[in-house]
Structure formats: structure tokens, C-alpha cells
Amino acid sequence: MGRTSDAKEKILTAARSLIELRGYSALGVAEICKTAGVPKGSFYYFFESKEALALAVIDEHWAAERREWTRILKDDAEPLQRLRQLFEATQATQQAGQDSCGTISGCMFGNLSLEMSNQTEAVRERLQEIFEAQVEMVEAVITEARARGEVTVADTRTAAQSVVAQLEGQVLFAKLYNNTSPLNALWTNCLALLGARTPVQV
Amino acid sequence: MGRTSDAKEKILTAARSLIELRGYSALGVAEICKTAGVPKGSFYYFFESKEALALAVIDEHWAAERREWTRILKDDAEPLQRLRQLFEATQATQQAGQDSCGTISGCMFGNLSLEMSNQTEAVRERLQEIFEAQVEMVEAVITEARARGEVTVADTRTAAQSVVAQLEGQVLFAKLYNNTSPLNALWTNCLALLGARTPVQV
């Protein structure tokens, strides 16, 4: 009972939804199981601890987001246009979240970085790996754009980190104001941060 | 007993320190009182609720930070140099925090924005006011720089918000990596975001 094949998935879905709504610290195992509709015993059958569950939620969310980032950033479009599409997709995702539940939940990885990175080293390390992967994906696109003479930036790694930092900062404002309009600035700011040589077709 | 003149200050100090370490949700009133060394009864003598305490902690922290921002941003130095000094002061504060307690605690307002803005409207509104005040202070400096022909930005408000967003995003990375080096990029990125006309003396 409760250890049916879908109990683990139900726990993950409930945990993800509760973490997006209220963060990690405010959650208890009992509440997660109640929301998931599974007995508490099944939680510890699938997960060693609340931390193990958090890591599983993070991994599942990143697997989906990485597929989306890969689809966009490894596309055939011109490099800077791919970055633009990434920002538009981010805005669309946040808008869809607001449309469905009334609030903008922001970036799960940014949320958990600020909430948890000084509390559990396992979560800190996982989030570091995810942001490193994001920065690498953005850096690859910047490197392509530079080879085409479209951007003038000297240090592609630092530039990529700055683009992701700008994204996280504007998503913070979108969440705080419960309004996606701060994300409108991402494309222009990205061009400025990269020292784009010429006005890119918009 | 416990309602002595310094009990309120002790509760605020303990709460601030615990919020910086672990965020708001993970805290209980009993723990705050134990850390402060005051009986639990005095908590409710001074604060109606944990939320009221959070607002008091936020207000006290912003009063101190606003004094620092005002000192730097309303200085006689050239406008862009004042922004540079703001970034250097931010980096020094984060570094001092790490030197004293081993971890970078980040920006309390950014931390609480991501943790709490979808949980309590009173905290959300207070944090909105604080970030609006920060953006206004930065915008005033950008407007001065533009009047001197040093920056080319069209919309000073959006530019100021982008500078603060970049600050929050890089502070997020500093906290995640427990390393202040992402903050090294703030000055160069600020010049890029503002479309600084000429290489400013560094």
C-alpha cells in the first residue's frame, strides 16, 4: 500500500509543487505525504531523508529544464537569437506559472541557492553543478557569436556568468513584484553585457 | 523579567543572525528566545507574531544599509565612481561576513524575496519598497552621469533596475559558491549596462 509504482512519482510531484510554493525549510514529510496521498511509511521506503527528496526534486527539474535549454541553445538559429529565445522561453514559463496558480514562483535553483546553500552541502554542490552547466551552455553560444564577430567580450566565461546572473536577478524581481515585466529587459541587457557590435535585428 | 530595556534588542539581534544563517521559515520563536537568552513570554510582549519580528529585522537591516548606500551614492565623487564604490563596499561586506562566520550570507533582502514573497504579503510589500528605494538611489546617480554625457542609456529607471538585478544575481553566485569573486565583475558589467561612452578611469 502506498508502495505502488506511482507512489514515488506522487511524492516527487507533491514535493516539487510545495517547494515552489513555500521553499524547502517550511515543509514537513507529513505534509508532503498528505498532499501526495500516500502513507508516511512509503516516504522512507523511497527517500532516505527530506534532503534526499530535495535532491531528487532538483534533479528532475533540471533534467526537464536542461532539455529545454538544449533545444533552444543548440538550435540552428543565429547564436544571439538563441539567447533571445532562451529569455523569451523563461518569460513564457514564468507567465504560465502565474496564469495557472496566481503567483510567479521564480527559478527553483535560484530560490534554493539563497535558501539552502548555507544549510546543506549536498544541495549546494548540486546547485553549483547546475549553474555551471547553464553558464557553460551560454558560454558556448557566446563563443560562437564572438567567432562571427558579433560580440566583443574578452572573457566568455565571465560574460556567460553575468548573463545568467542578470537572468536570476530579473527573475527575482519578477517574483517579488509578481509581474514578468522585468524580464523584458533581458535581451537588451544581454547585448550590452556582451558588447554586441552592431544593432542585432530585433 | 526579560522585559528589560535590552530584551527587544536581544531578540532582534538573535533573529537577524538566525535569519541570515538559515532563512525565516526554518526558525521557531522558541529557538529565537533561547538564542537571545530571554524568556518566551517577552517575545509576545514585543512582537505580535513571527511575521512582525521579520518586518522589524528587515527594517533595522535596511536602516543600516540605507545609511551606507546614502553615504556612498550621495558623496561628492564623480557619479560612476560612486557606483563603483557601492560594489566595492558590497564585496567588502560579504567578505567580512565570510571572514567572521565562514559563509557568505548574501543579501538579506534578496534571500527573503525568494523565500517569502509568495508567503506573506506584508513582507513582500516591505521588500518591494526597499528595492524601489535602492533602484531610485541608483537611478539618481545614473541621471547625473547621463547629464555629464558619461552614459548613453535611454531609460534610466530600467537601467537602474538592471544594475541592481546584476548585483543580486552576482551576490547569489557569491553565496552559492561561498566566494566573493563573482562580485569582481560588477563594475565592468555596470558600465556595459549603462552604455558608458568612454573608458572610465579605473
From TrEMBL, chains A, B:
Alphabetized, the UniProt keywords read: DNA-binding, Transcription, Transcription regulation
In terms of SUPFAM superfamilies, this protein maps to: Homeodomain-like, Tetracyclin repressor-like, C-terminal domain
For the keyword NAD, the answer is no
According to the entry, DNA is bound by residues in 28-47
HTH tetR-type domain: residues covered = 5-65
At the top level of its lineage, which domain of life is listed? Bacteria
Keyword flag Coiled coil: no
Q: Which PROSITE patterns does the UniProt record give?
A: HTH_TETR_2
Give this protein's Gene Ontology molecular function annotations. DNA binding
What is the name of the protein in this document?
A: TetR family transcriptional regulator
